[in-house]
Design a protein that fits this description.
The protein has 42 residues and is mainly β. It has one domain. Helices cover 0% and strands 52% of the residues. The chain has a 3-stranded antiparallel beta sheet, with no helix packed on it. The protein is elongated. The relative contact order is 0.36. Bound molecules: zinc ion (ZN). The site of zinc ion has 8 residues, from loops.
Length: 42
């Protein structure tokens, strides 16, 4: 998953939980390059 700030594909998942009644998974990610934190839905 590319960072929303620096565009590098170097992140770790901090937290994940189900969303939309289990249809999607929401993940909190932190970029290891710049420290940006962002949320993705998969
Ligand atoms: Zn970054």
């Amino acid at each position: 998953m590319k960072c929303t700030s620096c565009g590098k594909d170097n992140d770790k998942v901090i937290d994940s939980r189900s969303a939309r009644g289990g249809l999607a998974i929401r993940r909190r990610r932190e970029c290891l390059d710049c420290g940006e934190r962002f949320t993705t839905y998969e």
